[in-house]
Design goal:
about 20% strand; two-stranded antiparallel sheet; elongated; 4 strands; alpha+beta; single chain
């Protein structure tokens, strides 16, 4: 399930695991296939190149918007 979240943590504060969707972008803990919310592909310009990142979150974190 893909969930649109308007308020995301700053990309610069995320770990490599959070950027590739292995860990929750909000709490930083590992996400499992059984319990995950796909937050949709995000794009960002870095050094003049368009790069994609794939944030995911635990359902409880996504519903709370990370609060």
């Amino acid at each position: 399930m893909t969930t649109e979240i308007s308020r995301m943590p700053a990309v610069e504060t995320l770990s490599e695991r959070q950027l590739r969707g292995a860990d929750c972008v909000f709490c930083g803990l590992a996400v499992s296939r059984e319990e995950v919310r796909d937050l949709g592909q995000r794009k960002r310009r870095v050094f003049g190149l368009q790069v994609s990142w794939f944030p995911r979150a635990h359902p409880r974190c996504a519903e709370g918007g990370g609060s």
